[in-house]
DNA sequence: TATGTAAATGAAAGTCATTTTCATTATCTC
DNA sequence: GAGATAATGAAAATGACTTTCATTTACATA
């Protein structure tokens, strides 16, 4: 039985192709950022992604990471999570649909939230004369681990 | 028939009392910020509030505005709106219940959204082991005015 | 109504994530 | 290959806050 190829590589190809189609050039730096992003466990900040991508392309500048992340978000290949204090985390969108997040205020853990009940609100927006093109929804609280720790400390 | 008193003044008193009860001192600066905030049409940034409050108390520093806004939010008298780019707008909470916002990506106008359909999502959070203590929800798009302008330009 | 004390203020300096500038380099089209 | 133009990165700039610290002020207490 042939060992199946790692699933991340063909995805990388597809993403590069989509960037290309959108009029961007394919560079070693962009490949590195994309691979770093694919390798992160969950949503991370630009610095983290920079650190990881540098292991692939050591002379990569942080500016390029920001620019690449911006392009990925604009093209719909990545999305952002806004932390409580406004800082931004990035993650790849692996399927077509977006999702929201649960953010732990204690340890910063980010959990995925598949549900998106924003449809009815778009209606409300339309009633106010708005055309709604995007939305952001984050839930903040405390994850199971942090609650356990707190309980122990008592 | 006696002319009814302007509704904002007794509210100001109540807010000052609440600050006082929470252990804060009442200063001319804080009164000015509170009155400026009450006079703004919709959620505004610290600079705007500073500018307006200075008309009441000219030597007010921007730092004090930030500190006062922070206190108001902590005491539940004001709330924030996060713009698309992470900048923060402040507004007084005139009733007990919170609400969300529609933000125009073109002119920055902010409309109020009474509906808050986040209840079911809290459930989803609980299923992930989270205790949800807060959430943020903003819709982005284009207001009626900006759409009209765009149509004219065509 | 004084007085002591802790809180509040504001000018200046600091922070920090992100953006801009601009000279150089690399990709892709022909 | 050559040329056009997009991308890169070092350095500097930005901007929205926050911190520091010497000075002023509110207000609890006498
Ligand atoms: Mn996610
Ligand atoms: Mn509002
Ligand atoms: Zn946690
Ligand atoms: Zn608008």
What can you see in these coordinates?
2 copies of one chain form a homodimer. Chain A is of the alpha+beta class and 154 residues long. Chain A folds into 2 domains: 96 residues, Arc Repressor Mutant, subunit A, CATH 1.10.10.10; 57 residues, Ferric-uptake regulator, C-terminal dimerisarion domain (Dna Ligase, domain 1). Helix content of chain A is 44%, strand content 20%. In chain A, the strands form 2 sheets. The first copy, chain A, has a 3-stranded mixed sheet with strand order 4-3-5. In chain A, strands 1-2 form a two-stranded antiparallel ribbon. In chain A, helix 1 packs across helix 2, helix 2 packs across helix 3 and helix 3 crosses helix 4. Chain A is globular and about 50 Å long. At the A-B interface, strand 3, helix 5 and strand 5 of A face strand 3, helix 5 and strand 5 of B. Strand 5 of chain A pairs antiparallel with strand 5 of chain B, so a sheet runs across the interface. The structure holds manganese (II) ion (2 copies) and zinc ion (2 copies). One zinc ion (ZN) binds next to helix 6 of chain A. Chain A binds a DNA duplex (30 and 30 nucleotides) through helix 2 and helix 4.
């Amino acid at each position: 039985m042939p060992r199946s190829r790692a699933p991340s590589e063909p995805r990388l190809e597809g993403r590069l192709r989509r960037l290309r189609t959108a009029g961007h050039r394919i560079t070693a730096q962009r490949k590195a950022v994309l691979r770093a992003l694919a390798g992160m466990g969950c949503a991370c900040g630009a610095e983290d992604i920079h650190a990881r991508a540098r292991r692939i392309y050591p002379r990569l500048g942080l500016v390029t990471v920001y620019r690449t992340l911006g392009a990925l978000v604009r093209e719909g290949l990545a999305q952002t999570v806004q932390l409580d204090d406004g800082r931004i985390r990035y993650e790849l969108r692996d399927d077509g649909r977006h999702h929201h997040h649960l953010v732990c205020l204690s340890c910063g853990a980010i959990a995925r939230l598949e549900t998106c009940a924003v449809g009815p609100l778009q209606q409300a927006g339309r009633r106010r004369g708005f055309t709604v093109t995007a939305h952001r929804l984050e839930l903040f609280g405390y994850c199971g681990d942090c609650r356990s720790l707190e309980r122990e400390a008592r």
